[in-house]
């Protein structure tokens, strides 16, 4: 039997949407993430949460080997006006890892997802 994709092992659209629901609420409330004023201009507005959850869910479905469904910008364009530095990226990365722990995602799937996130660091970090 072929190995299941990470998408399938994370519970498909329901599992991923459920995790992103928790994650985005935590990111919007995270003081370290919101220390960047350009990030706070977006994450400080509760009305942005539903659309952002939709986009991050679809991105995560595609990035983990699920069906093509992401309609947003690529990761360079999505972040190029935000001056995200290494510490800003690390703050989000820590919140993602904490959310996966909080939800009880098993070690192998946790590590695989965090490797995907880390692989996008050069596209997201655009400040000196
Ligand atoms: C690999 C890590 C990351 C992923 C997968 C990711 C994913 C996304 C996605 C899918 C969007 C929506 C793009 C669109 O509107 O078309 C987005 C936008 C955004 N991201 Fe990220 N992101 C990451 C890292 C970060 C970090 C580190 C920060 C802040 C420190 C951040 C802050 C934002 C903000 C504020 C927006 C909204 C920009 C706007 O429309 O005004 N992201 N991100």
TrEMBL record:
Highest taxon above the source species: Bacteria
Pfam families to which the protein is assigned, alphabetical: Bac_globin (PF01152)
Signal peptide start and end residues: none
Keywords linked to the UniProt accession: Heme, Iron, Metal-binding, Transport
Protein name: Group 1 truncated hemoglobin
The species this protein was found in: Actinomycetospora rhizophila
């Amino acid at each position: 039997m072929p190995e299941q994709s990470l998408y399938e092992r994370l519970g498909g659209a329901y599992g991923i949407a459920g995790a992103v629901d928790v994650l985005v609420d935590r990111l919007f409330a995270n003081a370290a993430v919101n220390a960047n004023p350009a990030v706070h201009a977006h994450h400080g507005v509760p009305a942005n949460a539903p659309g952002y959850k939709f986009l991050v869910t679809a991105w995560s479905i595609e990035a983990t080997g699920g069906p093509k469904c992401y309609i947003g910008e690529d990761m360079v364009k999505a972040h190029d006006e935000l001056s995200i530095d290494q510490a800003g990226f690390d703050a989000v990365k820590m919140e993602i890892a904490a959310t996966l722990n909080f939800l009880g995602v098993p070690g192998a799937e946790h590590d695989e997802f965090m490797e995907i996130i880390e692989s996008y660091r050069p596209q997201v970090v655009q400040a000196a």
